[in-house]
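Give me structure tokens for this 270-residue protein.
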Amino acid sequence: MTSPQDHISYLQQYVYAGSGIVLDAEKQYLMEARLAPILRERGLASLYELCEVLRSTQSSPLHAQVVDAMTTNETYFFREPAHYEALRRTILPELMEMRSRTRKLTCWSAAASTGQEAYSLAMMLLEMGVAGWNIDILGTDLSSRVLKQAESGRYSQLEVNRGLPVALLLKYFRRAGLEWELREEVRRMARFRSFDLRAGMQSLGPFDVVFCRNVLIYFDLPTKKRILEEIHGSLFRGGYLLVGTTEAGLPAGDRFRRSTAGNAVVYVAA
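Here you go.
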């Protein structure tokens, strides 16, 4: 007879294998809350029954659904304003001067979720005046579910109320029923695709700027180091890595030089 803790341990290992995300034993309440909708949808009475179904099937939509449910997709427009201020005042002007001949900038939102990070950058660049520039913003996420919304460019009133200045809302969005839809000039600056950060990144980049914010905290130390090495390989030399404010002490090693831009801590690819 398996115990409730056995089910939690199995789900911890299952989610780690599928995403690299480390869930502490103390996160049992989080597992129960996030998996409850799946139990209801599938007519399952408990986490035990869910584990039994997962064990009995090698691959099914349920497998991806469980991993997706346990990923954190918290995001909003212009999250961590110090980063955007550093980009506007220091990083982007510097990069635009360096790229004045090619007039091309490449950026990666490595945990794009529903797209607010990528689109915030796009709107900022438009405000800075990038007419005639080739701007390529790649947004990736493990979750196909959130990427569908990112690609649609449609957001609820609550979502546009979080971090988005009213002036930019009125300038770059239009009403679409009960939602707000980004105008084409913003949407065409960003593209989205599913990607697992544990995979090799040779096919990506090279990038001038990589956002990898508030995601590495969910990985164990060896996985963090491996991801940072891969990100370094995806950046131009002198390119910038932005991580979350709670991640500023990450093990970047000698591949990155820790620096400051305004009030933001940034990492520069050596």
